Amino acid sequence: MDHFSSVVDNNDSPEACIRREAMEETGYQVDKVQKLFEAYMSPGGVTELVYFFAAEYHPDQKITDEVGVEDEVIEVVELPFHDALAMVADGRIKDGKTIMLLQYAQIHFFPSSLTPQRC
């Protein structure tokens, strides 16, 4: 399980790209997107810069149930934030970008959910 993503075309801004991908991969038309941070996934190995965004949405913004393009198989999953964190903890979410995004959200949007863990 992971978040949706795309490659930014030379003619697109990262914001335009994320809005397009939200529509293509979830069926939702999001208006306001908030850039959270940028990160290199493997500095020194690749020069790919990844942009991380968040956006609020409402059921009224659902435009289509047809998601993905051609051979993509996409299942849109909506779940409570604490369930997503539990999926990181038990290994069901393994994608590094998704884990970074969830941890950023936990620190900045849900700080009360932070509790010290013993090793």
Automatic annotation (TrEMBL):
Mg(2+) binds at residues 21, 25, 72. Residues 1-101 form the Nudix hydrolase domain. InterPro entries: NDP_pyrophosphatase, NUDIX_hydrolase-like_dom_sf, NUDIX_hydrolase_dom. Signal peptide: none annotated. It catalyses: GDP-alpha-D-mannose + H2O = alpha-D-mannose 1-phosphate + GMP + 2 H(+). One of its GO terms (biological process) is ribose phosphate metabolic process. One of its GO terms (molecular function) is metal ion binding. GO terms for cellular component: cytosol. Keywords: Hydrolase, Magnesium, Metal-binding. Its cofactor is Mg(2+). It holds the Pfam family NUDIX. Belongs to the Nudix hydrolase family. NudK subfamily. Nucleoside diphosphate sugar hydrolase that hydrolyzes GDP-mannose as its preferred substrate, yielding GMP and mannose-1-phosphate. Homodimer. NCBIfam families: nudix-type nucleoside diphosphatase, YffH/AdpP family. This is GDP-mannose pyrophosphatase. The lineage of its organism: Bacteria, Pseudomonadati, Pseudomonadota, Gammaproteobacteria, Enterobacterales.
